[in-house]
User: What shape does this take?
Amino acid sequence: MAFRSFDCLLLLIGLLSLSSLQPPLTALAATNIRLTRNRKLSQNVPFFREAPGFRNGQACGSSPSDRIHLAMTLDCNYLRGTMAAVQSILHNSGCPENVVFHFLWLRFDQDIKTSIKTTFPYLNFKLYRFDSNLVQGKISKSIREALDEPLNYARIYLADIIPTYVKRIIYLDSDLVVVDDIEKLWRVDLQDKVLAAPEYCQANFTQYFNDNFWSDPELAKVFKGRDRGKNPCYFNTGVMVLDVEKWRQRGYLQKLEEWMAVQKQKRIYHLGSLPPFLLVFAGNIKAVDHSWNQHGLGGDNIEGKCRSLHPGAISLLHWSGKGQETRTEFVNKVNERGFHALDLQQVLKGYICH
Assistant: This one.
């Protein structure tokens, strides 16, 4: 396993400590970040230092076709994660001014908007309200309370929220760090598929649905005949490339809502918004290199059920585990010993659990 750039990641780890509540790394001295003055925010919104301006290189285009559209959700509780993700994307992008962020939130929050604008003065971003009434009565209780939040289902409605001129978009969770140029993921050839993501065909697919599903012949046969007989494979919905134009044309919102209705009636799964995506798309997506989602970080080791690290280079680190370990602990290890002194195989193993 290797990162695309050791020096870039070292700088990035420092930038993960953008909040003034954490001590900065020594590497920050070289980034020319200055404190933003005279900014008053509520106590619920953390204070962030202004990030450096990221500029396009000479080879970057400036037409609408050169834009890279990214979607993320915005929530005060996860704002540090969102800021770190945005920083990592811009820092590693060859054409950062071409990246357009589409943020979805439940309600207008001037403090959050101000925090984004003052932390990233040059950021090209748009804000959209996700109406929680869209999922009222459609969400079933899952195994984790966080999975029941309406904003967790916003990705299902993304194509109907963003402007119609956006034909393709990358959806990203807020609990990740990008260590490669996001344009590489953006340029993936979707062919005739609507969704692209890393697939995990070695995963036990049956665990994502309960006996109520597998014991019903009519429900269980949904995966038969997918994509020339291909078996369904698990994929993580925290990193997806979506052809939203085809999504709209083929009515995928309705297909996902139909499975949410089945869930309300028969309780066929326990994992929030993920299973409907698997029911509709598993076995029928464009597979992306695993480097674009080293997921499972942040899990606990109590049960000892840990995923293996992906072989080769890593382009994206995803803290999608259910345990209490966080990116902050990873940053602390770098603070204590220095990035180059770490045995990354051993360090990351402590964060990769189901």
Remarks:
- Residues 5-12, 20-38, 337-342 have pLDDT under 50 and may be disordered.
- The longest strand covers residues 99-105.
- DSSP finds twelve helices and 13 strands in the chain.
- Residues 54 and 96 are 6 Å apart (CA to CA).
